[in-house]
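Notes continue from the previous slide.

Worked example: a multi-chain complex. Inputs as given:
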Amino acid sequence: MTARLNVNIDHVATVRQARRAPEPSLVAAAMICEQAGADGITVHLRGDRRHIQDADLFVLRQAVTTYLNVEMAATEEMMKVAIDVKPDAVSLVPENPKEITTEGGLNVRTNIAIVRAAVSRLREMGVLASLFIDPDPFQIEAAREVNAQQVELCTAAYAEATLGASGIHGEGAVRANQELRRLREGAALAAQYGLHVAAGHGLTVRNVGAVAEISEVEEFNIGHSIISQAVFVGLEKSVRAMREAIARA
Ligand code: PXP
């Protein structure tokens, strides 16, 4: 079965926040993504509110008719927002205030009590609890221990390796294949534990296919490359191109 695509529209808000202006509208973006075949909308509420604002979540909760996934750190501040908004899913992510983007998966092992409590609160509210983690067996095991329902495997290392993987024998290709193997094994282990498996970070129409071939991957969360392409070809076309790249696998 073709994996679902949630489009991360954070960078529509990045453009808006560059001017603190009303446009471009996040609701309009979400509607175009849905019309173009997106299965859901993802947004990341960051501690510094650099793109998505709290008010956006409430508006999107009303407007999104497919599936709303909110990425956030497992802090008390963010948990309060999640309780108020009640998205369909929350993906718990690590957050380093100085980072440009999420730098890797959550270390569930070293934060086990905090993550367990956050998962339990989300599940009590009927919100799907997903953990954004590296494809590392110790983290997948920890995700099971804290009763998460889903893991989102971080594809950043794979995606970065594909940037230098133009030839099939180049160093980049070797690394990309190693990272792909970690994703494949991680997805299989997570599914064996009864966890739903999502994937995301750094994926593009060129590198998504190999990950979409992993049968356990049920969902993608993809933002930057879709919004980047949208600047040139429009959002609808860009979402459709990603949908097709996933479906081709
Ligand atoms: N999944 C998670 C947990 C993320 O933090 C991000 C980036 O916000 C993405 C997916 C999307 O990554 P990208 O914008 O590189 O497609």
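Summary box: The chain has one domain: 4-247. The radius of gyration is 17 Å.
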